[in-house]
Design brief:
Helices cover about 40% and strands about 15% of the residues. The protein is of the alpha/beta class and about 325 residues long. The mean pLDDT is about 80.
Length: about 325
């Protein structure tokens, strides 16, 4: 699974003089280095307010032999919305072929919410063991996109993937299921659902850690839920069901009114944790690149299956030992 996405780095001078070249030129270089022949630029409220010209972005890319697309925004939606629309447009290239590949299509994933795609490697590797490829539209080849018409199932990771998933389902009759495989409970549900469409016999279910439930039953955690909540909601379920913690979900726009004391444990994007004025709370980092860009995207953290359980258990235990 590739990792070919990046944030444009611009400054005030770029904005005042026109940011198209400042955005397009380094993006073209990265695409060429990764041996890509296409680029998709995702708009944000900033690009809408500054009047970015998508045709100029395409021209810069074309001079280097790259096909480029610009997914604009109306100024009221972020890059995740742009990714969702781009994902839908990419999957509309699906068509019946003479050489279908056995695949599961993932929709609703974006790097801005879920971080690097290798966080889902456990799921991709399990499917691969059973002769099935996991196809992520924003990272897929043209051949993989076309073969989506023959997919065994569409895995919807978040609501942002519903438009593309519903189109594949209605156009080609491909079944779909929703799941975020965080922790043992989420992984078990995912394995059960995907097992309805491909043969995953021989795979054992992850088991909740009963000893962990006992040791962390008194720990109170507060999970900050951003605008795109799929991952945070799944983490809340894992903390409660797998680790036995007491859990409060806090919308990000109410964080300033959150009363914390030394016994609270806050799960949030590291940039939010750095900016919190209340320093008495214990913290666990859960990066959301939509909030903090690429600052923390390569941090050592996990959330899927047993690896996610171990990450949160160890992080909570480390914080508790500091008391």
């Amino acid at each position: 699974m590739g990792t070919d996405f990046s944030y444009a780095e611009i400054d005030d001078l770029d904005v005042s003089e026109g940011i198209e070249d400042a955005v397009a030129t380094p993006s073209v270089v990265k695409a060429k280095d990764a041996c890509r022949d296409q680029l998709i630029f995702l708009g944000t409220p900033v690009t809408n307010a500054t009047g970015v010209d998508g045709s100029l972005l395409r021209e810069v890319a074309a001079r280097s032999g790259l096909e480029a697309h610009f997914q604009a925004t109306d100024g009221f939606h972020d890059a995740v919305k742009g990714w969702s629309v781009a994902e839908f447009n990419l999957l509309k290239r699906a068509e019946p072929t003479d050489d279908p590949h056995r695949t599961v299509i993932l929709t609703g994933w974006s790097p801005f919410v879920f971080g690097r795609p290798d966080k889902l490697r456990s799921a991709a590797e399990l499917l691969q063991r059973h002769g099935t490829a996991l196809i992520v539209p924003g990272l897929a080849t043209e051949l993989e996109l076309r073969s989506a018409a023959h997919a065994s199932a569409v895995w919807v990771l978040s609501d942002d993937g519903r438009p593309a998933a519903d189109w594949l389902s209605s156009t080609y009759g491909i079944p779909l299921f929703e799941n975020v495989p965080v922790g043992a409970s989420g992984w078990n549900q995912w394995l059960s659902k995907v097992g309805g469409y491909i043969d995953v016999s021989g795979e054992s279910l992850s088991q909740p850690l009963t000893s962990v439930n006992e040791s962390l039953s008194g720990v109170h955690t507060t999970v900050v839920v951003p605008e795109h909540p799929a991952l945070a909601k799944a983490v809340c379920t894992m903390l409660e069901h797998d680790l036995g913690c007491q859990v409060t979900a806090m919308p990000i726009d109410r964080l300033d009114r959150l009363p914390l004391d030394g016994n609270d444990l806050l799960v949030a994007d590291p940039l939010i944790l750095e900016q919190r004025t209340c320093q008495s709370a214990k913290n666990i980092a859960l990066p959301y690149p939509l909030s903090s860009g690429t600052l923390f995207i390569d941090e050592s953290y996990e959330y899927v299956g047993d690896e996610g359980i171990e990450y949160f258990f160890q992080a909570i235990s480390d914080q508790e030992s500091k008391q």
